[in-house]
Specification:
The chain has 238 residues and is α/β, with parallel strands linked by helices. It is built from eight helices and nine strands. The strands form two sheets. A seven-stranded mixed sheet has the order 3-2-1-4-5-9-8, sandwiched between helices. A two-stranded antiparallel ribbon has the order 6-7. β4, α5 and β5 form a beta-alpha-beta unit. It starts with a helix and ends in a 5-residue tail after the last strand.
């Protein structure tokens, strides 16, 4: 992968989400298990983070903002898709509990040099797979480590696809991933757009995060094709 390829992929995925934004909530609602998954994420997050300041990373159309604000959290909302972010603003309405990062502030690749906000957050929520749209998750975790306090919690919901399901999605990529050990990729179309999805394994995520975060546990939601991962910001990490 060339040096600028990860950025090109991310921009392509952002364009996909701009296109799908109008129908995104309806798509999510049509799949009833999504409500159960979101409830489990909420339970896990609230059990780990009883209060504080939260970064909603890749927050989409703001479907978690309702329960986050109702639970008393102060939320920093990060969504690089302008169309999705607009939906989130409409969803939550006027409130002083949520601050929305704008345009360039949402580019996590800049956070290592300049934090998009002054006060570090106590926790990070990344629900319904934002990590799966990012090829270089090592760079991501380096950036996230700059905006969360030591000891802070990350709760991440990521895709989990066993080999049979990978084979069904894309046989050549499934076989290549099995033989090489590289991250499995799949492609999801919507009208004239296509997003590239990276199915990072739990081991890959733990390895990429290790310089800055330690694992606090995980929960496989196998029947829903997701894994709920808990990471903790290292006290000694720089």
């Amino acid at each position: 992968m060339s040096s600028n390829e990860p950025e090109r992929i991310i921009q392509k995925n952002i364009s996909y989400h701009d296109e799908v934004a109008e129908e995104y909530n309806a798509i999510m609602e049509r799949h009833q298990p999504n409500q159960l998954i979101r409830q489990r994420v909420r339970e896990k997050f609230c059990s780990l983070v009883p209060q504080g300041r939260v970064l909603d990373f890749g927050g989409g159309t703001g479907l978690d903002l309702g329960w986050l604000t109702a639970s008393g959290y102060e939320v920093v909302f990060c969504e690089p898709s302008v169309a999705m972010r607009k939906k989130a603003v409409e969803c939550i309405g006027a409130t002083d509990k949520v601050s929305f990062l704008e345009d360039g502030q949402t580019d996590f690749s800049t956070w290592e040099k300049t934090s998009p906000f002054a006060e570090k957050v106590d926790a990070i929520l990344s629900d319904f797979g934002p990590l799966n749209y990012i090829p270089d998750i090592g760079h991501l975790f380096s950036s996230l480590s700059k905006v969360i306090r030591p000891g802070g919690h990350c709760v991440l919901l990521v895709l989990h696809l066993p080999f049979k399901k990978r084979w069904k999605w894309h046989r050549r990529n499934a076989l290549a991933s099995l033989l090489s050990g590289n991250t499995f990729r799949m492609y999801i179309p919507y009208r004239d757009h296509q997003q590239m999805v990276f199915v990072h394994t739990e081991k890959e995520i733990a390895r990429a995060a290790a310089p800055w975060f330690r694992c606090g546990g995980s929960e496989l939601l196998a029947m829903h094709d997701f894994t709920l991962i808990h990471l903790i910001r290292n006290e000694e990490a720089g």
